[in-house]
């Protein structure tokens, strides 16, 4: 590769057409300009100018190198412009969170996407371990986790918490629920549902709860948006974080049962430690925090 300093000196020399004026523009001495020219000619392996007294003309090789110098300048200008612009509404953003929180968050992102055609938002619903790995690998700009990862390469900010909910049809009312009532209805299971059952049902029904593997299951579904649908239609019960309930299109048809002992999942917004956030990632962070605020 050609030496960048020598190339810039030669490009300036070509523009001014004079060694003294080139030296003044570059804040160099005239012998310094001549030295850069000689070194560049040695690197190219050909003469770049033909001297005619105090003036000069470019050789064919000189014309090609001058064109390269102008092109390099233009490329560097485009790079500087792109870096300095830091446009909030242009470029990609990669976010990862749980499926239930993604349902709550995505509608908050759509107005921004609609107003910014040069923006590309990638929201991935993933297990906690996958989010953590993606943050460490740099695949995600931001991630929402249920615990502080306490990792040397990550920085976490607590943005709120959401309740783990026992969800029944709206007509269930406020009548206290027993474990036998739930067993009669049957669980609408999903990939996280068994863990939620061990967390919430064992806490509230310690004498009766037999373990998630022995629950009466009425049905199962792995599409987060469809989990409450059966319950809304009077079939079974389910367990979801509050975000999964709030994001359901017909949440008025659901009832969240207030059990004596409540469980909460913390929400931590995580990024790579020391990583400068672009304007668009900073705005995405604000939207995530706003969505978390809906759960209070």
TrEMBL record:
Organism the protein comes from: Pseudooceanicola batsensis (strain ATCC BAA-863 / DSM 15984 / KCTC 12145 / HTCC2597)
GO MF annotation terms: DNA-binding transcription factor activity; transcription cis-regulatory region binding
Family membership noted in the UniProt record: Belongs to the LysR transcriptional regulatory family.
Gene3D superfamilies documented for this protein: Periplasmic binding protein-like II, Winged helix-like DNA-binding domain superfamily/Winged helix DNA-binding domain
InterPro entries: LysR_HTH_N (IPR000847), LysR_subst-bd (IPR005119), WH-like_DNA-bd_sf (IPR036388), WH_DNA-bd_sf (IPR036390)
A Pfam family of this chain: HTH_1
PANTHER family noted in UniProt: HTH-TYPE TRANSCRIPTIONAL REGULATOR, TRANSCRIPTIONAL REGULATOR LYSR FAMILY
Name of the featured protein: Transcriptional regulator, LysR family protein
Keyword check for DNA-binding: yes
Domain HTH lysR-type: 2-59
């Amino acid at each position: 590769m050609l030496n960048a300093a020598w190339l810039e000196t030669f490009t300036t020399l070509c523009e001014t057409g004079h060694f003294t004026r080139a030296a003044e523009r570059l804040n160099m001495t005239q012998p310094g300009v001549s030295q850069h020219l000689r070194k560049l000619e040695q690197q190219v392996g050909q003469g770049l100018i033909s001297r005619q007294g105090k003036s000069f003309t470019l050789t064919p090789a000189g014309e090609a190198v001058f064109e390269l110098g102008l092109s390099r300048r233009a490329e560097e200008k485009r790079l500087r412009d792109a870096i300095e612009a830091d446009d909030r509404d242009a470029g990609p953003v990669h976010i990862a969170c749980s499926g239930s929180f993604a349902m709550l968050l995505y509608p908050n992102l759509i107005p921004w996407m609609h107003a910014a055609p040069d923006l590309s938002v990638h929201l991935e619903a993933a297990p906690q371990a996958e989010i953590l790995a993606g943050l460490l690998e740099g695949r995600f700009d931001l991630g929402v986790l249920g615990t502080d990862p306490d990792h040397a390469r990550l920085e976490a900010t607590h943005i709120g918490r959401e309740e783990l909910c026992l969800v029944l049809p709206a007509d269930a009312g406020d009548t206290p629920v027993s474990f036998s009532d739930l067993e009669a209805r049957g669980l609408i299971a999903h990939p996280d549902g068994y863990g939620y059952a061990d967390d919430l049902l064992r806490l509230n029904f310690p004498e009766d709860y037999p373990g998630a593997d022995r629950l009466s299951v009425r049905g199962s579904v792995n599409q987060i948006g469809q989990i409450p649908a059966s319950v809304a239609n009077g079939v079974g019960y389910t367990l979801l974080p509050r975000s999964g309930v709030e994001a359901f299109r017909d949440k008025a048809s659901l009832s969240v049962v207030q059990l004596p002992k409540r469980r909460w999942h913390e929400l931590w917004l995580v990024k790579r430690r020391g990583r400068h956030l672009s304007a668009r990632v900073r705005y995405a962070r604000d939207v995530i925090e706003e969505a978390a605020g809906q759960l209070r």
